């Protein structure tokens, strides 16, 4: 959601006449913060410290800080870093261009934090980072009160977007060439709570599925408490809803789930997975797990291991519990010592890696359709492979045999999995035959984007890794001393990258 918000910030700035710095030192730097991550504030103030020096020698440079941490810290940011020009929150992202303008005109810092959403952010212009795949918000905020989570206090109560607006945005994306969308919300399956329709999410999935030309639909994140069978039916009966589900477990201990104020229990959770697999046999199911929540005993943790063993997740985002000031769990007694959390975390990682590997091995020998992507295969150049996501969202690195045509990002290749690793699959050619490539509208859109940004037609040989010239989100690299600066929380990011579990 944070990355998609950055796309909106970029879009709003472009609509106001700003252009990407394209490698030059930028006149405006916007940092979109995420308070869910640990140490977000340290990273923010560290980056702001670096930027202070840049700003001193760059006349007229402006720095803006927005997002969840700004919503939480409000004027603290200007107190700690008075060289910041604009601070804005999660509810008024669209104000960024006017706040920058006002800060320039009045020659003083502008702080604007609203307590509630004024306009649903999807009405803002969006500068999308991908031509083949897009995020579409269906709701923002959350009505739950998980005790470890800062989201409800920073994003507010759930606001549902009108179905017609969602469908119009998906249609517009498809018209622009996208063939994949991910529907976004803090709690997607409670969509409809605002207009009183408990089955609205399943209906929405079916309606989005009817959009001509849309090949892949994903969504994140659902909540086990409100996950009803009509959603499973909609997934199973809508061919372009992908066989993939991200279902956050958080803990396998019912006692800890209660302390977390998560209203399902492990049995219900496992029951959902059984029903999903009964209807969608090849579904890859991923999850989120927190280790070391306050009061977690060894017996509680073993319950988590038991559920993980039974659930057979394809991948998991695993987190060591750490205090988020402002959340109920932050002041709970029995915070678990760091070394205990670390030891449990390592056991969980080892178990999940084994399961991920075993589950990936079951896919070896199967044909898969891979949507070719950019930026997911860090070693692609040296291995002569390209990368993309299978229907179930598994990361696949596939060989481009010598003499074969090269697919473009957004094209779809049909390959057979030849090897499995815990976090990815390999599909190498067994007989050197050329790749089976389906050229798609999304590949054509990538060509057009390349031509627009470079002023030259796309070079097919550049392949999927040839993303040069694309405008990417994130803090531009600024040379400060010898260290390039990187953004604390913005950049292209796969939706479910199992290697993230090591974070
Ligand atoms: S459901 Fe998700 S977003 Fe809502 S409070 Fe719980 S963890 Fe946070």
TrEMBL record:
It catalyses: N(6)-dimethylallyladenosine(37) in tRNA + (sulfur carrier)-SH + AH2 + 2 S-adenosyl-L-methionine = 2-methylsulfanyl-N(6)-dimethylallyladenosine(37) in tRNA + (sulfur carrier)-H + 5'-deoxyadenosine + L-methionine + A + S-adenosyl-L-homocysteine + 2 H(+). It comes from the Bacteria. The keyword Signal does not apply. Residues 361-431 form the TRAM domain. Residues 128-359 form the Radical SAM core domain. Binds 2 [4Fe-4S] clusters. One cluster is coordinated with 3 cysteines and an exchangeable S-adenosyl-L-methionine. Gene3D superfamilies: Methylthiotransferase, N-terminal domain, tm_1862 like domain. Its EC number is 2.8.4.3. [4Fe-4S] cluster binds at residues 142, 146, 149. Residues 1-105 form the MTTase N-terminal domain. It is found in: Cytoplasm. GO terms for molecular function: tRNA-2-methylthio-N(6)-dimethylallyladenosine(37) synthase activity. Coiled coil: none annotated. Pfam families: Radical_SAM, UPF0004. CDD domains: Radical_SAM (cd01335). Keywords: 4Fe-4S, Cytoplasm, Iron, Iron-sulfur, Metal-binding, S-adenosyl-L-methionine, Transferase, tRNA processing. Monomer. Belongs to the methylthiotransferase family. MiaB subfamily. This is tRNA-2-methylthio-N(6)-dimethylallyladenosine synthase. It comes from Agromyces larvae. The gene is miaB.
């Amino acid at each position: 959601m944070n990355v998609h918000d950055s796309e909106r910030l970029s879009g709003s700035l472009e609509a106001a006449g700003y252009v990407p710095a394209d490698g030059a030192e930028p006149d405006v730097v916007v940092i979109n913060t995420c308070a869910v991550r640990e140490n977000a504030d340290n990273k923010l103030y560290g980056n702001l410290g670096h930027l202070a020096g840049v700003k001193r020698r760059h006349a007229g440079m402006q720095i803006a800080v927005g997002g969840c941490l700004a919503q939480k810290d409000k004027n603290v940011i200007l107190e700690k870093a008075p060289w910041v020009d604009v601070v804005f929150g999660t509810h008024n992202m669209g104000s960024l261009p006017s706040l920058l303008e006002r800060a320039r005109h009045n020659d003083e810092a502008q702080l604007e934090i609203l307590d509630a959403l004024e306009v649903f952010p999807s009405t803002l212009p969006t500068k999308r980072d991908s031509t083949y795949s897009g995020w579409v918000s269906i709701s923002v905020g959350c009505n739950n009160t998980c005790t470890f989570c800062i989201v409800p206090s920073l994003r507010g109560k759930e606001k549902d977007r009108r179905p017609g607006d969602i469908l119009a945005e998906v249609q517009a994306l498809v018209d622009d060439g996208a063939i994949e969308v991910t529907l976004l919300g803090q709690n997607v399956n409670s969509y409809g709570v605002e207009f009183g329709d408990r089955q609205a999410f399943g209906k929405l999935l079916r309606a989005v599925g009817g959009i001509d030309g849309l090949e892949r639909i994903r969504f994140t994140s659902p909540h086990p408490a409100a996950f009803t069978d009509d959603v499973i039916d909609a997934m199973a009966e809508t061919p372009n809803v992908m066989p993939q589900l991200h279902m956050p477990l958080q803990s396998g201990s019912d006692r800890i789930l209660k302390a977390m104020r998560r209203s399902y229990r492990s049995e219900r959770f496992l029951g959902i997975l059984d029903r999903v697999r009964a209807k969608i046999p090849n579904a890859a199911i991923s999850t989120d797990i927190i280790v070391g929540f306050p009061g977690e005993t060894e017996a509680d943790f073993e319950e988590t291991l038991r559920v993980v063993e039974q659930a057979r997740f394809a991948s998991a985002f695993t987190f060591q519990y750490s205090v988020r000031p402002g959340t109920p769990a932050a002041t709970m007694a029995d915070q678990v010592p760091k070394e205990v959390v670390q030891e449990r975390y390592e056991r969980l990682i080892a178990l999940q890696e084994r399961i991920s590997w075993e589950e990936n091995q079951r896919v070896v020998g199967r044909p898969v359709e891979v949507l070719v992507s950019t930026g997911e295969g860090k070693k692609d150049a040296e291995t002569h492979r390209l990368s993309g996501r299978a229907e179930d969202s598994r990361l696949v690195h596939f060989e481009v045999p010598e003499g074969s045509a090269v697919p473009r990002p957004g094209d779809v290749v049909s390959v057979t999995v030849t090897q499995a690793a815990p976090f990815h699959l390999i599909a190498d050619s067994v007989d050197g035959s050329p790749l089976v490539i389906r050229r798609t509208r999304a590949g054509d859109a990538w060509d057009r984007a390349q031509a627009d940004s470079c002023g030259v037609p796309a070079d097919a040989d550049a392949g999927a890794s040839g993303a040069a010239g694309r405008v990417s989100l994130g803090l531009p690299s600024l040379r400060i001393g010898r260290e390039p600066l990187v953004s604390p929380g913005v950049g292209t990011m796969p939706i479910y990258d199992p290697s993230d579990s090591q974070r």
